[in-house]
Model the fold of this input.
Amino acid sequence: MGQAGYILRFVDIVLILLFGMISVSRIDPSDIQPPESTETPDKPIVRERVLFVGVQTNGTLQVGEENRTLHSLPELTGFLREKIDQFGRPSLKVRVRSSHRAPMQYLMQVAALCDEMGLRKSIEVETK
Done:
């Protein structure tokens, strides 16, 4: 057995002893309290509501968790106003999803509507 074999065996024995000592030792809980910041106040937690708007190839829109079908932008405007009244504008975010086959015009109309209504948005185009 070469020099490297002895070193590996020595490291193996040391690790076995180390883990044996850790497993039989008794660790008492500490009374140390972690420090708390007095300089910066905690930020309030804002629950974000994400509304999904799916843009179909024929221009119809699938909205909400129930996949309600809307056929025009005024219908979408009404739907978004209901959600603003229900949840409040700061907690809403609209995720606009579209297929790569759908005309870009429909996607941009929905994005412009979100801008007009002051809603945050993200755009996602599925490639396949």
Notes: The chain is about 40% helix and 20% strand.
